[in-house]
Design goal:
The chain is of the alpha+beta class and 171 residues long. It is 17% helix and 20% strand. The protein has three helices and seven strands; from the N terminus they run ααβββββββα. It has helices at residues 6-15, 29-40, 148-154; strands spanning 47-48, 54-55, 62-67, 91-97, 103-111, 123-128, 144-145. Strands 1, 2, 3, 4, 5, 6 and 7 form a seven-stranded antiparallel β-sheet that branches. A hairpin with a 6-residue loop joins strand 2 (54-55) and strand 3. The longest helix is centred in the first third of the chain and has 12 residues, at 29-40.
Length: 171
């Protein structure tokens, strides 16, 4: 299993710049999953996009959003297009907060290698517990990787890089 190097993780934390997932086109799905989870461990060092928790558009929870790549803050839910291109290895993480304000789970989008999931711009998805352990779905498998249940919303955002962004008022 490959992991981000100490130098890479330190640079991400110190500079709050793109911290990429260590994945390539030749990696197996399990190697990609391992790379995503290794990078997820560092998500709190990514740029926090919102200034305070805000209401999720898809659930009755407040969320915080972190992005490993620059440019995510320029995309808003009402945007109709963007010039931002997210490189392979980009990781977007939402802390989904419980009613007490603590982190209940993490949802994530990871920009996979070319052909990882062409229908949604090669984005892979995940749902984990607060410690980054993938939740188990109804089919008995980890909620990580190609998640067709995420496609219906994200495919409609193709002109915005398949992402929704954070409203300017919440940044």
């Amino acid at each position: 299993m490959r992991r981000p190097s100490v130098v890479t993780a330190s640079c991400c934390a110190a500079l709050q710049i793109a911290c990429s997932i260590d994945i390539t086109a030749g990696d197996s799905p399990s190697e990609i999953d391992e790379g995503i989870l290794a990078a997820l461990a560092e998500y709190q060092s990514f740029a926090k996009i919102n200034n305070a928790p805000f209401a999720s558009q898809i659930a009755a929870n407040d969320v915080n959003v972190f992005a490993s790549a620059p440019g995510y803050a320029s995309i808003h839910p009402d945007s109709t297009s963007t010039a931002v291109v997210f490189p392979t290895g980009t990781l977007l993480v939402r802390q989904v907060l419980g009613s007490d304000g603590s982190v209940a789970e993490l949802t994530l989008m990871a920009k996979g290698p070319l052909s990882a999931d062409p229908e949604v711009g090669d984005w892979l998805y995940g749902i984990t517990d607060p410690d980054g352990v993938p939740l188990v779905g109804s089919a008995g498998s980890a909620e990580l990787g190609q998640m067709p249940e995420c496609h219906s919303c994200h495919v409609a955002r193709a002109a915005c890089g398949y992402v929704f962004g954070v409203a300017e008022a919440d940044q």
